[in-house]
């Protein structure tokens, strides 16, 4: 049995942070970072059956045609992803009454629709890009025992050499092949680098002195076989690594709003994000 201090429940029996009951969750989950973006996704639903929220975690569950969907905001960063992925898995695979893992496990489909900045000159603003792999520069997966395949280990080893100045071991996780085939079959694909911050950890410089002043150049010069790093953001690697560990399918769809090589930012960010939302919903 899982202790009360491990699986924390609210007075109504809902899971602690997400404020959801198991029946509130659909098997297909869309994650967005911005709480305001939840309503922009659910506005396309034919029917909304549930709206709940707590802190930055806003959830709408409803139907698009006969398809039941949940859209939930994660907030920013893999620390929040740790909360969201663990609690989504608990909702699907733990019996809250007995506090035991269910004998038959459910695999969720988890699709991130997020914003990102390109680190390659030929990835244009307005591109909708699917992440084949997520690379984590944060420490999240140091706290979990996860299994990595040979390709992930090969990329990880090369990343360790390439980013030796960071004095850390990046983790690598691939996205769901089945979701790529369903949703991203004709989209450009790349390796997404997940940073533990928005400014210096992504090579931005305002008034601070960055320890790696050439960070973007370092990122876009990485290559492993025919693979290269294409974009920077703050959640994908955590989603991929935890989803794989729990047996869920995950795909990250990135709305490219900036090009970090030439320093430009999209003049129509909301239109680019809406394009990504409509694409995912049409194919889900």
Automatic annotation (TrEMBL):
It is an enzyme of class 2 (transferase). It comes from the Bacteria. Pfam families: PNP_UDP_1 (PF01048). It catalyses: uridine + phosphate = alpha-D-ribose 1-phosphate + uracil. Keywords: Glycosyltransferase, Transferase. Residues 29-276 form the Nucleoside phosphorylase domain. One of its GO terms (molecular function) is uridine phosphorylase activity. InterPro entries: Nucleoside_phosphorylase_d, Nucleoside_phosphorylase_sf. Its EC number is 2.4.2.3. PANTHER family: FI09636P-RELATED, URIDINE PHOSPHORYLASE. This is Uridine phosphorylase. The lineage of its organism: Bacteria, Pseudomonadati, Bacteroidota, Sphingobacteriia, Sphingobacteriales.
